[in-house]
Automatic annotation (TrEMBL):
A Pfam family hit: FliMN_C
UniProt xrefs under SUPFAM superfamilies: Surface presentation of antigens (SPOA)
Organism whose genome encodes this protein: Amnibacterium kyonggiense
Family the UniProt entry places it in: Belongs to the FliM family.
UniProt GO cellular component terms: bacterial-type flagellum basal body; plasma membrane
Flagellar motor switch protein FliN-like C-terminal domain: residues covered: 226-292
Protein name from the UniProt record: Flagellar motor switch protein FliM
Taxonomy of the source species: Bacteria, Bacillati, Actinomycetota, Actinomycetes, Micrococcales
Length: 299
């Protein structure tokens, strides 16, 4: 089993480098913007037109199609948004996956028309026969096969893996996908097909990933960021335990004897973790400490 490589979407910048930081909406991520989005939407619109011509040729009934602008959401959201009985074509898409969502009524109509029937009862379909399923699967495979030529090679050729009422459990519901919805209009009846493509594969094909950085340079820059990260440093005495009666009887001027021996160094903590030993001292008019030695916790 080969490990899947996810392309990096951002460079590791050098510490102190000026950055143009923009707000990010995690519920509606915009991983593809500008010219890349225009190029992708134009390519998918071309596939939608080809899809309409294929359906018209197969069913011998004119169908108008309208393609929505692409958006990014999870495969799980695409699956959950299906309305009514649905068939799913799952395909290998480069190093990722593609999902093609077909309403059961639409698949039944395709099969009925290919078998010579009128297809008038397809809208009432609640199930599908083995023959109809085979015809719908073949049609879905042909539609997906048009993705590469219709987009002028921008997107890879999907390879159909499964076809059924539910997507395989192997589809990662949390993975991000580029989703395009194709609306069909035939004799006043509207239905919606949808195609979800692994966003990492799409970004790779668009060339919208950051250039590969040298591993040593990345390590050096990350180390620089860590060195500049603020941390809390404190000087700590050994804990002293007292009873509630002592605390309740405290008054201004009272002394609390500490359990810390006078000849024992204090402990320097880094974000609550002991790292060094130190003696109390001063620096001008401010308190300070003099590092004595490491307690072995520092690496």
């Amino acid at each position: 089993m080969t490990a899947r490589t996810t392309p990096a979407r951002a460079l590791v910048h050098a510490p102190g480098e000026a950055l143009d930081v923009q707000p990010y909406d995690f519920e509606s991520p915009e991983l593809i913007t500008g010219e890349d989005r225009d190029r992708l939407d134009a390519a998918l619109e071309g596939w939608g037109r080809q899809l309409g011509m294929q359906i018209t040729a197969k069913t011998r009934a004119v169908v108008d199609v309208a393609t929505t602008p692409s958006r990014v959401q999870t495969f799980g959201a695409v699956i959950a948004s299906a309305e009514g009985p649905t068939l799913w074509a799952t395909a290998r898409f480069g190093s990722g996956r593609a999902l093609y969502r077909i309403p059961l009524a639409e698949a039944s109509y395709w099969a009925a028309r290919m078998l010579g029937a009128a297809g008038d009862r397809a809208g009432q379909a609640t199930g599908i026969t083995g023959v109809e399923r085979g015809l719908a699967r073949a049609a879905a495979a042909e539609h997906l096969a048009e993705l590469q030529p219709a987009t002028s090679g921008l997107l890879p050729l999907p390879s159909l893996e499964a076809f059924g009422a539910e997507p395989p459990a192997s589809v990662d519901r949390d993975a991000q996908a580029v989703v395009v919805v194709i609306g069909t209009l035939r004799k006043g009846e509207r239905r919606q097909l949808a195609l979800a493509l692994d966003v990492d594969v799409v970004l790779e094909r668009l060339g919208a990933v950051a250039p590969k950085q040298d591993a040593a340079e990345v390590t050096h820059r990350i180390g620089g960021h860590l060195a500049m990260a603020p941390v809390e440093v404190a000087l700590r005495f050994a804990p002293t335990r007292v009873g509630p009666d002592t605390v309740l009887d405290l008054a201004p001027g009272d002394l609390i004897p500490l359990a810390h021996p006078a000849d024992r160094p204090l402990v320097i903590t880094l974000d609550g973790q002991p790292v060094l030993s130190a003696a109390a001292g001063g620096n001008g008019d401010r308190l300070a400490c003099v590092v004595v030695d490491s307690n072995g916790a520092l690496r």
